[in-house]
Specification:
- The protein is of the alpha+beta class.
- The chain is about 35% helix and about 25% strand.
- The chain contains six helices and eight strands.
- The strands form two sheets. The protein has a five-stranded antiparallel sheet with strand order 1-2-3-4-5, with helices on both faces.
- Helix 1 crosses helix 3.
- The longest helix has 18 residues.
- It is globular and about 40 Å long.
- It starts with 9 loop residues before the first strand and ends in a 7-residue tail after the last strand.
- The N terminus is likely disordered.
């Protein structure tokens, strides 16, 4: 297991970002069970076992790759707000997509509309570029998820095509290594 003392912790004015821990499981799973949060996810409602395995996959990214999704927490009260970061999901969407780090974000319903996702996504992108060097990154987003598409545009992502992932339509996006964030 990676040494928790060497894993990155990012502080922004309002947020703390850190790799997930097993102790995050119940708050993290509650986010995925909320219908308001789930409405744009292509995966079915996860069982407790599937949720546990997904959290272990998130934790494993850090050990295997040195990057992954951060848990996002409110600095003022420690409340869990969501996930933001870059990962390697091996989605099978083609070499132009799968060979690049993929950005992902999901915020708990109570965190929507406060700018937390933008603050966290900027911090995660900045950390990734400093730590792993500037790289082309990609994303897939439900075409009806307008808040996520706006966030992607602010982060410098541009549509590159469409795909079907887990029987759901998605917009494929990419961000060049030199992209500036708005």
């Amino acid at each position: 297991m990676a040494d928790p003392l060497t894993q990155p912790v990012i502080e922004t004015p309002r947020l703390l970002l850190r790799p997930h821990r097993l102790s995050d499981f119940h708050e993290w799973r509650a986010m995925f069970l909320d219908e308001g949060t789930r409405r744009f996810l292509s995966s079915p409602l996860p069982s407790e076992e599937e949720s546990w395995n997904r959290l272990l996959r998130y934790i494993g990214h850090w050990s295997a790759l040195g990057y992954g999704l951060f848990g996002v927490f409110d600095r003022a009260d420690g409340r869990f707000l969501g996930d933001v970061g870059l990962a390697d999901f091996h989605r099978g969407l083609g070499a132009e997509f799968d060979r690049c780090p993929e950005v992902a974000w999901i915020m708990a319903a109570a965190a929507h509309g406060h700018g937390y996702a933008t603050e966290a996504a900027r911090a995660a992108h900045d950390w990734f570029a400093r730590t792993h060097g500037p790289q082309r990154t990609v994303a897939i987003i439900d075409p009806d998820n307008h808040p996520s598409l706006r966030l992607a545009a602010r982060m410098g992502y541009h549509p590159t095509g469409e795909c079907t992932y887990r029987n759901a339509a998605c917009v494929m996006l990419a961000r060049p290594a030199t992209a500036a964030m708005a």
